[in-house]
Amino acid sequence: MKILSATLAGKRMVAVGDHGVILLSDDNGVTFRQAKSVPVSSTLTSVTFSDPQRGWAVGHWGAIIRTTDGGENWTLQRSDTKADQPLFSVYFRNSTEGWAVGLWSLMLHTTDGGATWSKLTLSPPGAKKLDRNLYSIFGDRHDNLFIACEQGSIARSTDGGQTWNFVDTGYTGSFWTGLALQDGTLLVAGLRGTVYRSTDGGDTWVRSRTMVRSSVTDMVQMPDMSVIAVGLDGAFSFSKDDGVSFAGKQRTDRTALTAVVDGHDGRIVLFSANGPASP
């Protein structure tokens, strides 16, 4: 059971993955159970909550589903079975406004909690077609928005999502995940263990020093301000200097780690291509 994304909904942990599976844990990741009602059987790639009760998950066939009871029951808000244009990431800045991004520059925006979604067009300068995959959308404490993309680029909005521009990091590979740290530092990571860092709101990016060369799938900042990065081939890295450098290792089982969550007691909860994983 491959898990692709996980997050916290108050004290509850919510994870999503293949075949529309949604797992819930109320004991900080020690045990999991399945959600009561999920309206899709296609792969879910990303999940987010605006508060302990209201959350959204997205996935293949452009599916967007919503919960208002902490993940127990979900309803379908959107899908497009005519074209399998998957959504890779979803982010809500509050309970009403959110964005979902995915394949071939697909971006959707809602201002009514997902009751309706409008399609936006993001095209990098010089692009001949909308072929840039948008992998991970995230926001910072100033309501700026960022999207980790293909070809070493970052899409950025500094006006609440009204306009977007693409920032070239100097890297040519794909970024799969991104994170805004509490001090405002921005991190994006992806292929071959690559991590880039910005301390000026995304204007300029510098490559971090990393030890592990397996692709990074997810990152989280812990209560002690350290940053944990996980990835393929059992890659596990950590930074104690706000992402300037990462020390790391590979798990002996080499299981593909796909998501990491900061548990309420400061423990690290891991997810993998085989479901929840032991630290």
Describe the structure.
0% of the residues lie in helices and 48% in strands. The mean pLDDT is 94. Strand 22 and strand 23 (227-231) form a beta hairpin. By secondary structure, the chain is mainly β. The protein has a domain at 122-277: Neuraminidase, CATH 2.120.10. The relative contact order is 0.12. Strands 21-25-24-23-22 form a 5-stranded mixed β-sheet, with no helix packed on it. It has a 4-stranded antiparallel β-sheet with strand order 1-2-3-4, with no helix packed on it. A 4-stranded antiparallel β-sheet has the order 5-6-7-8, with no helix packed on it. The radius of gyration is 17 Å and the shape is globular.
Which features characterize this protein?
4-stranded antiparallel β-sheet, Neuraminidase, 0% helix, mainly beta, 28 strands, 279 residues, 48% strand, 5-stranded mixed β-sheet
Helices, strands, pairings?
Elements: E1 3-9, E2 12-17, E3 22-25, E4 33-34, E5 44-49, E6 55-59, E7 64-67, E8 75-78, E9 87-92, E10 98-102, E11 106-110, E12 118-121, E13 134-139, E14 145-149, E15 153-157, E16 165-168, E17 175-180, E18 186-190, E19 195-198, E20 206-207, E21 209-210, E22 216-221, E23 227-231, E24 235-239, E25 245-250, E26 257-262, E27 268-272, E28 275-277
Parallel strand pairs: 21-25
Antiparallel strand pairs: 1-2, 2-3, 3-4, 5-6, 6-7, 7-8, 9-10, 10-11, 11-12, 13-14, 14-15, 15-16, 17-18, 18-19, 19-20, 22-23, 23-24, 24-25, 26-27, 27-28
* Intertermini distance: 18 Å
Helix content: under 10%
So how many helices?
Answer: 0
Strand content: over 45%
User: What is the average per-residue confidence, as pLDDT, rounded to a whole number?
Assistant: 94
Q: Helices and strands, in N-to-C order?
A: EEEEEEEEEEEEEEEEEEEEEEEEEEEE
CATH class of the domain at 122-277: Mainly Beta
User: The CATH topology of the domain at 122-277, please?
Assistant: Neuraminidase
Number of strands: 28
Shape-level CATH architecture of the domain at 122-277: 6 Propeller
Strand order of the largest sheet: 21-25-24-23-22
